[in-house]
Amino acid sequence: MSVPEVVVSQEHISSSLSLGNGVELGYLDSGAPEKQVYTTIFAIHGMGYHSPVFRRVIALSPAVGVRFVAVTRRDYNGSTPYTAHELNALQNGSNSDKQAFLRARGLEIATFIQRFIQENSLPAPSSDEKTGGIGVLGWSLGASFAVALVANLQTYPTLIQKTLGQYLRALILQAAVCRPWPSLPPQSWSPQIDTSIPAQCRQTGFVQWITSYFEHGDLSTRDPNVLEYVLPTVKRVPSVFTMGQDELDEMTNIDAANGGDTLIVVSFSPQLRACYKDALYNKDIRAALPRMKVLVFSGDATANFGIVALWSIEDDDAAAGGGWVETKIVPGINHFVHWDAPQLAVETYLSVFD
Question: CATH number of 13-351: 3.40.50.1820, 3.40.50.720, 1.10.150.20, 3.40.50.20?
């Protein structure tokens, strides 16, 4: 689906939605576009950067007939922090405790979506399946929460199951983290995992480094050895240098990244992989979501893990018989296409709805 060039507005709605049991999720909402039947995309942010990182896509969306809602995950600014019990499950939990933690996070986002649909009278899919309905976008670590949302569908209240079955047209995984899938290649590097960097600087270093552009070798080989793991290219300015200090302060939360998110990345691989396999390849779940298409995409200039994850998903799709997932590597983009090239980001998101 081609998105015409438009002039964007900086207006958006910032609010929160109560889910019950003392839990609220904050969000940014582009608001409804002028046309009566439109598609809504719910975005789940990654690690360190949260909902305001989508501000340029949010500003663009109404003019191209899309409603864009960036949901803020627990522990990040504007949403309820994790409880002591939840933090204990992250730090010391058994396998079943970790499964329950992910199931609860999936239910929270599913509940948010169901209530948002109801309270805002979001349009259902049109009869020709060309517009209406919703997509769920998981960016970076947010992809893990997106697959947890879908994987636990059958445990949700009946109303939520029916709503998602009727409305959900797309699951979009953008530069998905590799950790839920096979182990990272041994040459992988990030400021987060480099113990020669002082501990207090690792997340801050990651927040800057992850916005870089990287010059990889021939990606058609699907060979991890052609990837650049450490050194950004000097041919393009990292995205962080196009962010004002106020903007950067608004969209980042180092404490949240250092807290629950780091524990999830470090110790939840088996549980996340199980969610991923159910969300994408479980026949019963896919049958219960008959309209849901899956798009996995990454840039050819992004940090290595997004490309490795995409290759891993392609292998899993082939092993499952093929046709479960659409994948694409988009030329010229890094981890922050929604910031540096929001027009292209929206065009890529909408391509799965065609």
Answer: 3.40.50.1820
